Fold this protein.
Amino acid sequence: MECLVTGGAGFLGSHLIERLLQDNHSVVCLDDFSTGTKRNLDNVKNQIKIVEGDIRDPNIIKETVRNIDYIFHLAAQISVNRSVREPRFDASVNIEGTINLLEAIANCSVKRFIYVSTGGAIYGEPTVIPASENTKELPISPYGISKLVGEKYLQWFHNIYGLLYTIIRPANIYGPRQDPLGEAGVISIFLGRIKNNEPIEIFGDGKDTRDYVYVKDITEICVRAMNSSHVGIFNAGTGKQTNLLELVNIIEHVTKLDVYKKFCNPRPGDVNHIALDSKKAYEKLGWKSTTDLTTGMNKTWDWFLSDQ
Ligand SMILES: NC(=O)c1ccc[n+]([C@@H]2O[C@H](COP(=O)([O-])OP(=O)(O)OC[C@H]3O[C@@H](n4cnc5c(N)ncnc54)[C@H](O)[C@@H]3O)[C@@H](O)[C@H]2O)c1
């Protein structure tokens, strides 16, 4: 099948491309290389078509979606912090860019649109954790809002044009190739600083919790979504909350290094506690996360030691 991966030069996108190639699909990667890199595509660059372009440019998109069967839409402004500073920019990429894609394929023969949304930022501060897909979406950051609006447009295009879709709401993804100098991805940022003997910054008292899910588990749910006839929304997490202090303990255990912590003020837009109930993904797609945090952390640290 012909697959388009927007944001394919990014952290998750580059792993997803490898996974699609394993299943013998043809892949087109559309990316503006704003946070993604050519280096992320080193393993696969001879096997895929790379289109350098911005999802905010409707002309590039029209050209790129021709003859595509499956679209995996990952290109996004992904930093909560940046979305707080620059909500208009965040909306232009995450909302306008998504609409551009949807408009371009409204009357095409695309078999399914797989939209990687967010489970970590869409529910805000849910009263019941782990949060299921039935939890009310009450995002507290422009990033959470823009990803939710992208979902709503996708559902509108489904209602009007019959476009089949899967929305995946991942928890906090981590793993090799996540940018340690980026603004999202706390595990990668911490490991990058620890490797350089720099203190890590903890915003708040360290008791905030997240649900950390390994990148290969998320590529697996993307492929399962592609191969399923089910239309709908799926959380993708482990269901387990880990607070930052516990996370640092795991990092110290894995790296065998002492970690120097600097406590800073909490940041606006960051949620305090989240974990995702992914029972629906298990029931409908047969998916569950299979990589525990220590195993995934070891793989990520190995990559830091070998690659950086
Ligand atoms: N990393 C996480 O913890 C996490 C959690 C939940 C959901 N997600 C979602 O997963 C997707 C991938 O995130 P990631 O962590 O791989 O981030 P990333 O920044 O590594 O990847 C995003 C990619 O999109 C590209 N891009 C950005 N703006 C673009 C534009 N205007 N036009 C074309 N390409 C553009 C970037 O260059 C990059 O390659 C995003 O949609 C994000 O919202 C990520």
About this structure: DSSP finds ten helices and 13 strands in the chain. The chain has a mean pLDDT of 96.
